[in-house]
Amino acid sequence: MPSASIVALRLSRLAPLGPEATAALCGLRESHRLPAGGAVVEEMEPLRPRFLVSGWAARVRWLADGRRQVIGLVLPGDGVGICERPQPLALCAMTAVTPVELVDASTVARQVFGPDGPQARDLSVALAMSAAMDEAHLIDHIVRLGRQTAIERMAHLLLELRFRLALVDLAQDDEMPLPLTQEQLADALGLSAVHVNRTLQQLRREGLIELGQGRVRLLRRPLLETIADYKAPEVTRWGGGVAAAS
Description:
Blueprint: H1 5-12, H2 19-26, E1 31-34, E2 39-41, E3 50-54, E4 57-62, E5 68-74, E6 79-80, E7 93-96, E8 100-104, H3 106-113, H4 121-147, H5 150-166, E9 175-177, H6 182-189, H7 193-205, E10 209-212, E11 215-218, H8 221-228
Antiparallel strand pairs: 1-8, 2-7, 3-6, 3-8, 4-5, 4-7, 9-11, 10-11
Helix pairs in contact: 1-2, 4-5, 5-7, 5-8, 6-7
C-alpha cells in the first residue's frame, strides 16, 4: 500500500475518519529519507510537522558525558512536530534507529491548527487522540523507569511495542519487528547492556519470548501482562477503534 496510508490506518483506529481526511492523509507525498543514525531533528531546532511512514526513530536526550536516555520510540504512522505551539522547538533530539522515511504534514497541520480553527473536525479529533496516546505512553515510561524491576521493564516495553505496532498491522499473532540493539534497549530502560542481555535470556528461558533476526514473538502474552502490570492505554471513555490493537 502507499506508504503514507499507514498514517491514515493508525489515525482511523484512534478515531473515525471521513473519506476526505483519509484521502488527504494517503495523498501526502513530499518525503524525506534518512539512514540509520541520521538526525531527524536536533534538540532546540525548529520542528516541522511530519509523519514517520517507515522505519523506527528514537527521541533522545544526551548528557554532557555522553550518556544517552531514550525518551520514547517513534514508530510507523506516528507524528513528529504536529502540535499547536507557535513556531515549536524540539525539546529533545530525534535519531533514526533504522533507515526511515518521513512525509511532510504541513497541509494537515494547517487544516487542524490554522488561525481560523479546525477545518477538518474528524482529523482534529484523531490527532487529539494521538497526542493523548503519546502522553499515556510517556506516563508508562516514567513508571517503568521509576518503579519497575528489569524484567518488568522489559516485558512492559515489549507489550507497549506490540500494542502500537498492531495499530498499523505490523504486529501479528504476537510477533513483531524489534530492530533495537541491546545498547539501545539499555538506554530506553535505564539498564546496562549486560543487564538487558541477562533479562532477555531470562524471558527466553522461561518460555515467554522467542527472539532472533530482528524480531520477537510474545509466547505467553497474558503472563507477560501480569508480570509487567500492563494495561493497554485508554485515553477516553469513547472507545474509538483502539480495541483493534488490544
